[in-house]
Prior knowledge:
The protein is mainly alpha-helical and 473 residues long.
Amino acid sequence: MTDQNLPKSARNFDVQRNLPDEVRLANAMDGFVAEFGPTAASYMNACVRCGLCAEACHFYLATDDPKYTPIHKIKPFEEAYNRTSGPFAWLNKMLGRAPKLSIEELEQWEELIYDSCNMCGRCTLACPMGIDIAELVKEARHGMFAAGLLPDRLMHLVTKAEEFDSPFGTPEDFRTTVRQIEKEFGVSMPMDKEKADVLMTLTPEALENHHFGIATMARVLNHLGLDWTYCSDAFEATNFGYLSGDLELQGELTVRLINKAKAIGASTLIIPECGHAWGAARWEAAKWYGAPIEGLRIRHIIEVLAEAVEAGKLKCTPVNESVTFHDPCQQIRRGGLERMPRVLLKALGMELHELDPHGVEGFCCGGGGGVLANERAEPLRLKAFELKKQAVEASGAKHFVTSCNICELTMSKDIEAIGWDKQIESVIDLIGTHMITDEPPLKSPAGKAGGARKKSGTPATGKTKRKRPAKKK
Ligand code: SF4
Ligand code: SF4
């Protein structure tokens, strides 16, 4: 019998929905088996147990605990494969070499794949057999979501995204907040234009905590003369379906953005400073849309700005100070954008002191992949952050900059929790405050380099239910 009736403090897993154990197990197995296509099968058969992935994972390095080795994190997934789908599944079953998964195993596993994996892909890079453990963890989460075995806080955000249009709130909440930011900072922010060339999206994190960042980004888009708009019925960049394993929600959130961009005649959909939002939209959108996405480019904001710099359309007054850069793993290692933030830092006249390691080899912030949303993971996350802190200190740089809202929020919280005298800044905020422009200056006094982050969030208050978007017509 599952331990779900134990007090929360006595267990390291959460249980969603009221289901008998047999149903949870069956749902998990169905979810796993659905993922055992040729790619997963080849990964599953390829591991030579060399252990190189362990040395790549910040959670293992920070704790020395073997349960945090990447290959261990996919063990129940592998066991399910050996029992149901592997080439020797029949023999394993006959000889009892692949015992049935138990509910207790799955409960213990919840911590490993939701608390101690950011799906950052550093282990993938290290694996000599090319096994994409980050992808396998993502696939394993599909079964865990179906079994209702995921952290409470992540489930809460999924529920909000299902019930409203976004974990932030309703379209009305969004319009109200954007109008407030527009007024506070004196920056024009087009809303719900019937036709526009660019559909701009935002993260709930920025809408709740970083209005200055939204204002600077809008100011840059205006300076570039783009024909852009927010759409209050398709503003959400993040995808909590992708993070939680809720495939239906993942598809709906993605298709909503694509349908809206097409409806307003946009040629470009811009993903803001977010990592997993970039991965979910850029690499997976066509799968959910059900066809190639023709006539619409999905671009990250740092790509758009770096291109503008290189075309001579965006120039900055030089900052003339040293900087080190945290590479967000979904944008850089798994997203192909390593050069872009470096173009922006150069345009700012900053002297870059690279972290060791950096670029595609950089360590994750520790909060991606839904880990930040999962409060019980904080102690482990703080241990992993020590690696980043040491690297930043060793760089000797004055500024510590990144290009992802979630990395920024994660590391701001970590910095505060450990009492470190350092501030993390956004490269977009720096561009927005130092660009040479005829745009009116920002009205807010908060505009010190990098901009101020609000302490408290704007509560989501709306009641409007979301509409389910239709797939490709
Ligand atoms: S994807 Fe990242 S966090 Fe997850 S096991 Fe691999 S290195 Fe560790
Ligand atoms: S690095 Fe690859 S082959 Fe080696 S143990 Fe890890 S997953 Fe297996």
